[in-house]
Amino acid sequence: MKIVPKNHKVKYSIPRTIGRGVLLVVLLALIPAMYFLPQLLIRGEAANYYCENIFPWVALLPQAINGMFMISLTELFAVMGSVTLIVLIFAFIIKCIKLLFTRDTRALLHFIYVVFRNVAIIGIIAALMFELMHGINYNRTSVRKTLNLYGETRPYEDYEETLMWAYLGMVTARKQLGEDYHGVAHMSTSFESIVYDANVALSSLNEYYDLGLSTNYVRAKPVMLSHLWWYTGIAGFYDAFLGESNINTDYLDITHFAVTVTHEIVHARGFANETDANTIAVLACINSPRADFRYAGYYYIFMRLYSTVSEYASHEGVAMDEYFTMSSFDPVRRDIIAYNDYCDSFEEGPIADFIARFSEDANNAFLESNGQQGGTDTYVVPQNVYVEYFCRYIRTDG
User: Fold this and answer.
1) Is 287 within the bounds of a domain?
2) Are 115 and 92 in contact (CB under 8 A)?
3) Residue 386's domain spans which residues?
């Protein structure tokens, strides 16, 4: 007896086709809906409650899983995923061409529908994951408001005193660091120890000021392709899907590295806003028992304040200390020169410029799409934040 083969032709009817078309449109529309609606609906106290009480549990599993691996899973998936995506795109095109040659229009349309439906479902899940792991965190109360770092215009003396405080903290911490044969300081311990101490510094700051950071331990990862990554100008990247903080380790610059690591861990512990992340990172560093952390934190404050205080002094017609000519600044100058030499070692040209511009524009568009007006400018913490912090919490006159 001859077995009759099954009919694999796609069933076709006008109602079925219309239904599939409507479903596909709905699925595609749900991608931006899942991306924007949570941030639009969960705001104010609801966002604070989510960030402090729900987010740590949402992030616990992905952070626990990626914490089991020493390598960056983000980098692994990015490299393998890029290759896989290219293969899938070629396979999709070849399949479509094959169906075109067979003149099986119904099968072609069904195949395209299935592919786009699956892509839409993946997009919906990804958008929702991003919001739960990062997007909603943009809406929490800023650390500046939590610490009451707003205030009326302060006189020049407060700015100058804050600058002196930052300078003394910077040069004092620098004296405690060892140097290489070129007189340049470097991070004092291994990368794993840096990450551990950054978590400890954040936990201590969080407990003292009740900032609402997640208590999850975040194992930041070094990126193997850091040298190539440096062309993008990105020092660190938080992967919201894995809850993973990725760090460029091509050069562990003593003046920036501790703040960078701490900044990315802050993202993974519940603060999405770049200004908040930098503020918390710097405050955690200057309050750390590690001299290299304090050095980076005070260095950040000093460099942010110097030009402002200089302009303020000129406006007020007063003489300002020439910090850069002081002998105590010489070790800091050597570190700055070493960092600049490293940056100058990269090849320049149209390709490098394109990569840098593309990275900047993409990051700027990403931040603004999440309600961060100013885009990449939000990385810069307003100078008066540190002046207010000094006056309220160090000098304690607030």
Assistant:
1) yes
2) yes
3) 143-394
